[in-house]
From TrEMBL, chain A:
Topological relation to the membrane, as annotated: Multi-pass membrane protein
Compartment annotation: Endoplasmic reticulum membrane
Transmembrane spans: 33-51, 57-77, 97-115
Family named by the database record: Belongs to the DAD/OST2 family.
Function: Subunit of the oligosaccharyl transferase (OST) complex that catalyzes the initial transfer of a defined glycan (Glc(3)Man(9)GlcNAc(2) in eukaryotes) from the lipid carrier dolichol-pyrophosphate to an asparagine residue within an Asn-X-Ser/Thr consensus motif in nascent polypeptide chains, the first step in protein N-glycosylation. N-glycosylation occurs cotranslationally and the complex associates with the Sec61 complex at the channel-forming translocon complex that mediates protein translocation across the endoplasmic reticulum (ER). All subunits are required for a maximal enzyme activity.
PANTHER family found in the cross-reference section: DOLICHYL-DIPHOSPHOOLIGOSACCHARIDE--PROTEIN GLYCOSYLTRANSFERASE SUBUNIT DAD1
Pathway field: Protein modification; protein glycosylation
Name of the featured protein: Dolichyl-diphosphooligosaccharide--protein glycosyltransferase subunit DAD1
UniProtKB/TrEMBL annotation, chain B:
Pfam families in alphabetical order: STT3, STT3-PglB_core
Protein name in UniProt: dolichyl-diphosphooligosaccharide--protein glycotransferase
Chief localization: endoplasmic reticulum
Keywords from the named record: Endoplasmic reticulum, Glycoprotein, Glycosyltransferase, Magnesium, Manganese, Membrane, Metal-binding, Transferase, Transmembrane, Transmembrane helix
Catalytic activity field: a di-trans,poly-cis-dolichyl diphosphooligosaccharide + L-asparaginyl-[protein] = N(4)-(oligosaccharide-(1->4)-N-acetyl-beta-D-glucosaminyl-(1->4)-N-acetyl-beta-D-glucosaminyl)-L-asparaginyl-[protein] + a di-trans,poly-cis-dolichyl diphosphate + H(+)
Limits of the Oligosaccharyl transferase STT3 N-terminal domain: 29-432
Family: Belongs to the STT3 family.
Cytoplasm in keyword set: no
Subcellular location: Endoplasmic reticulum membrane
The protein's required cofactors: Mg(2+); Mn(2+)
Pathway named in the protein's UniProt entry: Protein modification; protein glycosylation
Start-end of Basic and acidic residues biased regions: 478-506
Entry's transmembrane regions: 25-48, 127-146, 152-170, 182-207, 213-237, 249-274, 280-298, 310-334, 375-395, 402-419, 425-444, 513-537
């Protein structure tokens, strides 16, 4: 009894999640896809490390952290570009994108240096 | 100092945008001039040591940094990164590139290079000596920026002025104290400023700058772990108190990723940035903030009913996963003996750890807990302005003021564990005192302004809130008296309190600004200015008398007021550099290692880096053993000269005989045949006739007191204030080669091995003598 009601509730939950998410604008969805891709790449790298071993550790670390780093920065960009966020009303999306690019530049410069 | 702030803080009352902007511009110019003056003040108050003594590098650690900077300026950065130093920790050597925090040396090297390329001929030593005062000026400006973000420009200026002079910071950044803290405190305050700025504005640009400033801090000092633990603590505090916002995410998440990567770039830290427990807090909070962010996002896009369903689902499923992950983590951490923390960090968490397990950390005088008077000596007036500042931070409580409160609380705890960390307390105390003083001046000058005849302006300006708690009390007393008259005489104290609490709330809704009486305000302003004057006087005195001693040169005043200079250390080092071969090894206690390599340019066995406890214990054992065993230990390490510091003739208290018990303890920690009770008579450490025979025969005693009886005929040790026990003795395995003018440094040479062994070979047969000698040596000397 309880299980079927929870199953129904979860189905209703996923339904409402999907419908609410479909309402987000396209540019935010693109950023979400990018974030998902970055996290997926990080997971692939971790699985590879588990199979092959962690030598050289600095390369593994730089690879995983670059994926996670760019995912985090993309999330920050999404926060700043989202029109529903009233705190960032006066930040132009171009400015947010420029900050994103700058931060990514610094991140990848460090990655290149650390990868060895 | 009071009047410019009131001009800056005074609200504009008359209408007209033009006059308001003119006043703002005027305030801005005055603030700029004040900042420049604060920078000059911070620089010049640290010059006492240069004026009183000379432009020389102080103490012990700065000599190592100076030597490294010399190497960097001579050989360039590639050789510096790959430098393997074979002139220290003989025969092990030391990888300088991988074990030094490069921030300070790279900064000074860059300054030297830039200045010389502009054809200003400053030597490396001058740049090194004056790096600390310059960066203290920068640190004051960073404190201004940080406090401005928290409270406003008036508080910022006060905090900057306080930080420029606070004695605790002066003690580690005088001209000549060329140590990591000189640039690290600037990096610390600047990193915190950028974090608060990112938190307040939510700009990714400042987040990038924050990560770069954190990188500079990691390069400079091992205390960077304070930042990477304080910021996650603050994020957690904000989440728990319901202050989560997307700005918090932007301030924290990029910092963790970029910061960890940048920290791993520094060779000293390397993989410790992801493997040691000191960084786990940041990763844990990283995961937590993502969970919280996701939760808020889903809450935003779902209806409340659906959100409840989601919560129950996630909680039930997630709890199981969480428990599994935590179990794995605990297993991993518990498998290492120190639970993944380094020795020094464990000492901070458990102050008794070092004294039980690692005597070397416990023996450093900077690692002892401070005494109560040292708080008043080091931060003076700020010690009781800080609580007022904490209260002022609560009105209103913003993200940035909660950060400052967390900073002061944690730094007060850590300063109570180690004297050295009073330095981390100093900026926090200055910030909070600046806030307190600024708020006090705000209220007082506003009271004066509104009550002066002719300037009776509009009291209902809503731009200011209703002042501090002290303002509420005098105005409420007449009101409660009226209420008491109305109600019958029988009344609880509780009801009276309720009346008092009810009265402020109607006054707040009316938005009337409460002011103090005019005379009280004037007197209070004068008293606060007097307080500031006492602070300034104390700081200048502390800088001039207490903290400017270079400790490599000592002075004393003779009876007729003349100055007597004791330059024995440099005398000894220059004797070594002129009268010994370049490759000769010198053995001494580890305190003098850096100075010996830097000034005498000779190879040493152990130095202040103290990374190898066994090697130091070897030297300690040698100093505690009788002459023959000590000779054998030193001979096996190719030592040619032994250096001891002896203060008995002039009364210099920090000599090797006073440090000797630490040598015994450290040596005994590794070599069990050295037992501390052997050197104590009835638990007391003595060197007079009542001392134990082990004490009177050990190498340290003999090298310190050899021919000491010739100085005054009786052998009266001025530091220990007794006559020594064994006065007339000869050295069999060492010979004295140099003693400085005031007998403060004594250098001995190891006598070479004798070609013929006399005595026993003649009496017994050859085979038996060899075996008996081997047996005898095996029993007494653990080296064969």
């Amino acid at each position: 009894m309880g299980r079927s009601s929870t199953v129904k509730e979860t189905q209703a939950l996923f339904q409402s999640l999907r419908s609410a998410y479909a309402a987000t604008p396209n540019n935010l969805k693109i950023i979400d896809v990018y974030v998902g891709f970055a996290v997926l790449t990080a997971v692939i790298q971790v699985v590879y490390m588990a199979v092959v071993g962690s030598f050289p550790f600095n390369s593994f670390l730089s690879g995983v952290l670059s994926c996670i780093g760019t995912a985090v920065l993309a999330v920050c960009l999404r926060i700043q570009v989202n029109k529903d966020n009233k705190e960032f009303k006066d930040v132009a999306p171009e400015r947010a994108f420029a900050d994103f690019i700058l931060c990514n530049l610094v991140l990848h410069l460090v990655i290149m240096n650390f990868m060895g | 100092m009071a009047s410019p702030e009131s001009a800056v803080n005074g609200p504009t009352m008359t209408a007209g945008a033009a006059s308001k902007s003119l006043r703002n511009a005027f305030g801005g110019v005055i603030a700029f001039i004040i900042l420049v003056l604060i920078g000059v003040l911070a620089f010049s108050i640290r010059l006492f040591s240069v004026i009183k003594y000379e432009s020389v590098i102080h103490e012990f650690d700065p000599y190592f940094n100076y030597r490294v900077t010399q190497f960097l300026s001579k050989n360039g950065i590639y050789d510096f990164w790959n430098w393997f130093d074979d002139r220290t920790w003989y025969p092990l050597g030391r990888v300088i590139g991988g074990t030094v925090y490069p921030g300070l040396t790279l900064t000074a090297g860059t300054i030297w290079k830039v200045v010389n390329s502009l054809n200003i001929p400053l030597s490396v030593e001058t740049v090194c000596v004056f790096t600390a005062p310059i960066f203290s000026a920068f640190a004051s400006w960073a404190a201004y920026l940080l406090t401005k973000e928290v409270k406003g420009p008036g508080a910022g200026l006060t905090a900057a002025a306080l930080l420029a002079m606070v004695p605790s910071y002066i003690s580690r950044s005088v001209a000549g104290s060329y140590d990591n803290e000189a640039v690290a405190i600037f990096a610390l305050v600047f990193t915190f400023y950028l974090y608060i700025k990112t938190l307040n504005t939510g700009s990714l640009f400042y987040a990038t700058l924050n990560a770069l400033a954190y990188f500079y801090m990691v390069c400079s000092w091992g205390g960077y772990t304070f930042i990477i633990n304080l910021i996650p603590m603050h994020v957690l505090l904000c989440i728990v108190t319901g202050r989560y916002s997307s700005r918090l995410y932007i301030a924290y998440a990029p910092l963790v990723v970029l910061g960890t990567l940048l920290a791993s770039l520094v060779p000293v830290v390397g993989f410790n940035a992801v493997l040691t427990s000191e960084h786990f807090a940041s990763f844990l909070v990283f995961i937590i903030i993502h969970v919280v962010a996701l939760a808020y996002y889903i809450k935003g896009i779902l209806s409340p009913k659906m959100f409840k369903v989601a919560v129950t689902l996630v909680v039930s499923a997630g709890l199981a996963v969480c428990c599994a992950v935590i179990a794995i983590l605990i297993a991993v951490v518990a498998s290492s003996p120190t639970k993944g923390w380094s020795g020094r960090s464990l000492t901070l968490l458990d102050p008794t750890y070092a004294s039980k397990y690692i005597p070397i950390i416990a023996s450093v005088s900077e690692h002892q807990p401070p005494t109560w008077p040292s708080y008043f000596m080091d931060i003076n007036v700020l010690a009781f302005l800080v609580p007022a500042g904490i209260i002022a931070c609560f009105m209103p409580l913003t993200d940035s003021s909660s950060f400052v409160i967390l900073y002061i609380v944690t730094s007060v705890y850590f300063s109570g564990v180690m004297v050295r960390l009073m330095l981390v307390l100093a900026p926090a105390a200055c910030i909070l005192s600046g806030i307190a003083l600024s708020e006090a001046f705000n209220v007082l000058t506003r009271s004066i302004k509104f009550q002066l005849p002719g300037i009776a302006g509009n009291p209902s300006i809503a731009s200011e809130e209703n002042g501090s708690s002290t303002v509420v009390a005098p105005n409420d007393i007449p009101k409660t008296e009226e209420a008491a008259k109305e109600k019958p005489a029988k009344k609880n104290r509780k009801k009276e309190k309720e009346n008092v609490e009810k009265k402020p709330t109607p006054s707040k809704t009316e938005k009337r600004l409460l002011v103090l009486p005019l005379e009280a305000s004037v007197i209070a302003v004068l008293l606060l200015v007097l307080l500031g004057a006492f602070y300034v006087v104390h700081c200048v005195w502390a800088a001039a008398e207490a903290y400017s001693a270079p400790s490599i040169v000592l002075t004393s005043h003779s009876n007729d007021g003349g100055l007597h200079v004791f330059d024995d250390f440099r005398e000894a080092y220059s004797w070594l550099s002129h009268n010994t071969d370049v490759d000769d090894k010198v053995a001494s206690w580890w305190d003098y290692g850096y100075q010996t390599t830097a000034m005498a340019n000779r190879t040493v066995l152990v130095d202040n880096n103290t990374w190898n406890n066994t090697h130091i214990a070897t030297v300690g054992t040698a100093m505690s053993s009788p002459e023959k065993q000590a000779w054998e230990i030193f001979h096996s390490l190719d030592v040619k000269y032994v250096l001891v510091v002896f203060g008995g003739v002039v009364g210099y208290p920090s000599d090797d005989i006073n440090k000797f018990l630490w040598m015994v303890r450290i040596g005994g920690g590794v070599f069990p045949h050295i037992k501390e009770p052997d050197y104590l008579r009835d638990g007391q450490y003595r060197i007079d006739a009542q001392a134990t025979p082990t004490m009177l025969n050990c190498l340290m005693y003999k090298l310190s007191y050899f021919r000491f009886v010739e100085t005054d005929g009786k052998g009266f040790d001025r530091v220990r204030r007794t006559e020594i026990g064994k006065k007339h003795f000869k050295l069999t395995h060492f010979e004295e080669v140099f003693t400085t003018h005031h007998w403060m440094v004594r250098i001995y040479k190891l006598k070479p091995q004798r070609n013929r062994i006399r005595g026993k070979t003649k009496k017994s047969k050859s085979s038996r003598s060899v075996s008996s000698k081997r047996d005898v040596r095996g029993k007494r000397n653990p080296w064969h």
